[in-house]
C-alpha cells in the first residue's frame, strides 16, 4: 500500500503517491512534513519518476518494456522499376485490369493476383495468426499462394524477393484492417518469404515503400489515371449486373464487357503523357524548359485536361458505350432486386470469399445491385468533415478567446472553414467525375447515395462516429434502400470475425422491427459453409420474388394493357431492347420490369393520342403497336 507524500517543486507544494505507507498510523501533516522533499527542476522530477518506476517494476517482477518497432525493409527504388513486378489484388476483375493498365502506363511492371479461393484461405490460416477476420486469411493466403506458384514455375526465393513487391492499402484501424500490413509480413515470414517487400498506400505522403527511397511516385498522371480506373471499374461493374440478367443471348454481356474493358485498358496503357515542353509552340518551349514552376503548373492542368477531356479518352469511352449498347435485352423479365451491402471486401470479391454470391443470386433469378467503391471514398470524405467539425472545440487554435479578441475569433472561424472547404472541394470533384463517367457510359448506372442522408438515417440506431469497417453505412443503406423502395431485399455480406459488422448486425434487429416490410438478410461469409449460406439466401429470396411479382402485376394492371400487348410494342421498337434506353425512374417502384412496363405503356398512350390528333378525318386510327 502507498500513501501520498508531499514535495516542493519550484516553491509549490505537491503530492505524489510514491513512498510506502508507515507501519504505524501517523497524522497526515506529520507524514507530509517527514517526507518533504526539495525538487527544483523538471529534469530532477523526471529522474525521480524514472527511479520510482524502476523500483515499482522490480517489486512487481516486470521486465523493462520493449517497444515494437516496425521492421526496416529494403526500399523499392526508382532504378528497380523496370525489373520489379508490382503485385496487387482484392477488387473485381474490371477494377484490377484498369488499375494494372494505369500502372503500366506510368512505366511499372504490374500483375494482378488471382481471385482468392478456399485454398488461399487455408494457406492464410496455416501461415497467419489465429483469430483474424476472413478477408485477412483470404488475401494474405492468396499472396503466399502466388509466391509459391512462382517458385513452382522455377523462380528461386531470392529472385522472388528481388523481383516482386506487393502493393496494398494501409490503415491504422480501428478494426483488423490496421493489422493487415503486419499480417502480410508475419505470414510471408512463416511461409519462408521473409524480406518480401510490402508497399503501403499512404494518403498523407503519397505512395512509398516502407522505408528508404520512394519507388512508387504518386505523380499527376498516376493520380488521374487511378481516379479514372476506379470510376470506370465501378461503372462497368454496375452495368454488368444491370444488363446480364436481361440479356437475350446468353453469355453476350460477359463477352462484350471483356472487349469494352480491354479497349479502355489499351487506351489507359498507351496514352501519351502530356508534357508542356512538347506541346507548347516553338517560341515558348525554351521558357518552359528553364522555368520549373511554370512548367509544373502547366503540366498539372494539361495532364488533368488530357485525362478527363482528352480526345483519345473520350473516343475510347464512346467505343465502349457503343459496344455495350449492342447487347440485346428483355426488360420485361420479372426479377427481385437484391441490394448488396456489408463489409468492404466481402461485398466486392467475386469468388469463394463471399460464396460466389452474385453468381448464385443471378442463377436464382435475381438482379444484383452492387455497391461501388466510390461510395466508400465518399464516406471517408464525409466522415473527415464530420470529425473536423466535432473535434474543432478541442483543435481550434484559441480555446477561450475573450469577447473582444476579434482576431482570435476570426482565426477559430477561418481555421475550420478552410478544412471544410478543402474536403468539400474534394467531395464535389469526386462526385462530379463519378457522375460524369456514368453519363459517358450510357447514363443508367446508379448515382452515389447522399452521405448526409445515410448518416441521418443510421444515426438513431448506429452512431456515425463509431468507426471501423463500414461504420454506420450498413445500417444507413439498409434503411435508405428500403424507404426509397429501390430494392426488394437487402443482403449484407460480412466476413466471420468482423468486429464492426457484428456491431451493426446487433442493431439491425432494431432496424427490422421499425421497418416491417424490410427483407434483410445478413450472411457471414467464411472459408466453409457455402451450402448453408446459399440455402438461407434462397429462403429470403423466395419472399423477395413474391414481392417483386406482386409489384409487377399491380403495375401491369394499372396500365390497363396485357403483357402480350406491351411485348408486341417492344418487338416493333428496337430501341426498347437496347440496354442504354433510359427508363425514367418512378418513385415507389423497385423492379426493373415493373418500371419498364409503366414506361412502355405511357409511350403507347402518348402515341395513340398523337395519332388521334393527327389522323385525317375518315381514316382509321393507327394502333399504338403499329407505331
Ligand atoms: S471491417 Fe471487419 S472484415 Fe474488414 S478488416 Fe475490419 S474487422 Fe476485418
If you had to describe this structure to a student in words, what would you say it looks like?
Residues 18-25, 203-213 and 622-627 have low confidence and may be disordered. It contains 22 helices and 12 strands. Helix 3 packs parallel to helix 9. It has 627 residues and is α/β, with parallel strands linked by helices. The protein has a 5-stranded mixed sheet with strand order 5-4-6-7-8, sandwiched between helices. Iron/sulfur cluster is lined by residues 133, 135, 175-177, 343, 469, 495, 498-501.
Rg on CA atoms, Å: 31 Å
Bound molecules: iron/sulfur cluster
Unreliable runs: 18-25, 203-213, 622-627
For the secondary structure, the number of strands is 12
Give the termini separation: 96 Å
Strands of the widest sheet, in order across it, are: 5-4-6-7-8
Shape: globular
Q: Major sheet: size, sense and barrel closure?
A: 5 strands, mixed
Q: Whole-number average pLDDT?
A: 87
Compute the number of helices: 22
Tell me roughly what share of residues is in helical segments: 40-55%
* Structure classification: alpha/beta
Strand content: 5-15%
Brief digest:
The protein has 627 residues and is of the alpha/beta class.
Tell me the layout of helices and strands.
Layout: E1 2-9, E2 12-20, H1 28-34, E3 37-39, H2 42-60, E4 85-88, H3 93-105, E5 109-112, H4 118-127, H5 134-152, H6 157-163, E6 164-169, H7 180-190, E7 197-201, E8 207-208, H8 220-243, H9 252-270, H10 276-279, H11 282-290, H12 292-309, H13 311-325, E9 337-342, H14 357-363, E10 367-369, H15 373-395, H16 406-440, H17 451-458, H18 473-483, E11 489-495, H19 499-514, E12 520-525, H20 530-559, H21 563-572, H22 592-614
Parallel strand pairs: 1-3, 4-5, 4-6, 6-7, 9-10, 9-11, 11-12
Antiparallel strand pairs: 1-2, 7-8
This protein binds iron/sulfur cluster.
Amino acid at each position: 500500500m502507498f500513501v501520498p507524500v508531499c514535495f516542493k517543486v519550484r516553491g509549490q507544494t505537491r503530492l505524489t503517491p510514491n513512498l510506502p505507507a508507515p507501519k504505524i498510523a501517523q497524522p497526515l501533516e506529520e507524514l507530509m512534513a517527514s517526507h518533504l522533499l526539495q525538487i527544483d527542476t523538471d529534469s530532477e522530477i523526471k529522474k525521480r519518476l524514472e527511479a520510482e518506476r524502476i523500483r515499482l517494476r522490480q517489486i512487481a517482477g516486470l521486465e523493462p518494456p520493449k517497444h515494437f518497432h516496425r521492421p526496416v525493409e529494403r526500399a523499392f527504388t526508382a532504378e528497380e522499376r523496370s525489373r520489379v513486378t508490382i503485385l496487387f489484388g482484392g477488387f473485381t476483375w474490371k477494377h484490377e485490369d484498369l488499375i494494372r493498365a494505369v500502372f503500366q502506363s506510368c512505366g511499372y511492371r504490374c500483375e494482378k493476383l488471382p481471385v482468392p479461393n478456399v485454398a488461399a484461405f487455408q494457406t492464410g490460416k496455416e501461415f497467419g495468426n489465429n483469430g483474424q477476420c476472413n478477408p485477412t486469411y483470404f488475401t494474405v493466403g492468396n499472396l503466399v499462394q502466388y509466391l509459391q506458384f512462382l517458385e513452382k514455375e522455377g523462380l528461386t526465393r531470392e529472385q522472388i524477393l528481388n523481383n516482386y513487391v506487393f502493393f496494398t492499402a494501409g490503415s491504422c484501424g480501428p478494426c483488423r484492417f490496421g493489422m493487415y500490413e503486419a499480417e502480410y509480413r508475419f505470414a510471408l515470414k512463416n511461409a519462408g518469404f521473409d524480406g518480401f517487400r510490402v508497399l503501403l498506400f499512404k494518403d498523407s505522403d503519397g505512395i512509398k515503400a516502407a522505408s528508404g527511397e520512394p519507388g512508387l511516385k504518386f505523380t499527376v498522371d498516376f493520380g488521374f489515371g487511378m481516379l479514372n480506373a476506379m470510376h470506370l471499374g465501378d461503372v462497368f461493374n454496375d452495368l454488368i449486373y444491370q444488363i446480364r440478367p436481361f440479356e437475350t443471348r446468353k453469355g453476350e454481356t460477359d463477352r462484350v464487357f471483356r472487349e469494352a474493358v480491354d479497349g479502355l485498358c489499351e487506351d489507359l496503357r498507351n496514352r501519351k503523357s502530356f508534357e508542356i515542353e512538347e506541346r507548347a509552340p516553338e517560341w515558348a518551349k525554351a521558357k518552359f524548359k528553364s522555368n520549373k514552376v511554370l512548367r509544373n503548373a502547366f503540366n498539372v492542368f494539361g495532364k488533368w485536361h488530357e485525362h478527363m477531356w482528352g480526345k483519345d479518352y473520350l473516343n475510347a469511352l464512346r467505343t465502349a458505350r457503343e459496344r455495350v449498347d449492342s447487347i440485346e435485352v428483355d426488360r420485361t423479365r420479372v426479377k427481385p432486386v437484391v441490394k448488396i451491402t456489408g463489409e468492404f471486401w466481402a461485398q466486392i470479391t467475386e469468388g469463394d470469399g463471399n460464396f460466389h454470391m452474385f453468381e448464385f443470386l443471378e442463377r436464382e433469378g435475381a438482379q444484383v445491385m452492387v455497391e461501388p467503391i466510390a461510395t466508400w471514398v465518399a464516406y471517408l470524405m464525409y466522415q473527415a468533415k464530420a470529425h473536423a467539425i466535432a473535434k474543432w472545440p478541442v483543435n481550434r487554435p484559441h480555446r477561450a478567446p475573450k469577447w473582444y479578441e476579434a482576431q482570435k475569433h476570426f482565426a477559430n472561424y477561418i481555421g475550420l472553414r478552410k478544412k471544410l472547404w478543402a474536403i468539400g472541394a474534394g467531395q464535389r470533384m469526386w462526385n462530379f467525375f463519378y457522375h460524369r463517367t456514368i453519363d459517358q457510359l450510357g447514363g443508367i448506372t446508379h448515382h452515389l447515395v447522399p452521405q448526409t442522408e445515410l448518416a441521418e438515417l443510421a444515426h438513431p440506431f448506429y452512431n456515425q462516429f463509431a468507426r471501423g469497417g463500414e461504420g454506420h453505412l450498413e445500417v444507413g443503406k439498409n434503411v435508405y434502400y428500403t424507404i426509397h423502395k429501390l430494392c426488394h431485399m437487402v443482403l449484407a455480406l460480412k466476413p466471420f470475425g468482423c468486429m464492426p459488422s457484428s456491431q451493426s448486425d446487433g442493431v439491425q434487429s432494431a432496424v427490422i422491427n421499425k421497418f416491417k416490410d424490410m427483407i434483410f438478410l445478413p450472411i457471414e461469409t467464411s472459408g466453409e459453409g457455402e451450402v448453408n449460406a446459399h440455402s438461407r439466401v434462397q429462403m429470403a429470396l423466395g419472399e423477395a420474388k413474391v414481392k417483386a411479382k406482386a409489384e409487377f402485376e399491380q403495375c401491369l394492371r394499372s396500365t390497363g394493357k396485357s403483357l402480350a400487348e406491351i411485348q408486341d410494342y417492344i418487338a416493333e421498337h428496337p430501341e426498347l431492347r437496347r440496354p442504354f434506353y433510359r427508363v425514367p425512374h418512378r418513385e415507389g417502384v423497385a423492379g426493373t420490369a415493373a418500371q419498364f412496363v409503366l414506361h412502355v405503356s405511357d409511350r403507347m398512350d402518348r402515341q395513340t393520342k398523337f395519332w388521334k390528333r393527327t389522323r385525317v378525318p375518315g381514316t382509321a386510327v393507327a394502333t399504338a403497336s403499329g407505331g
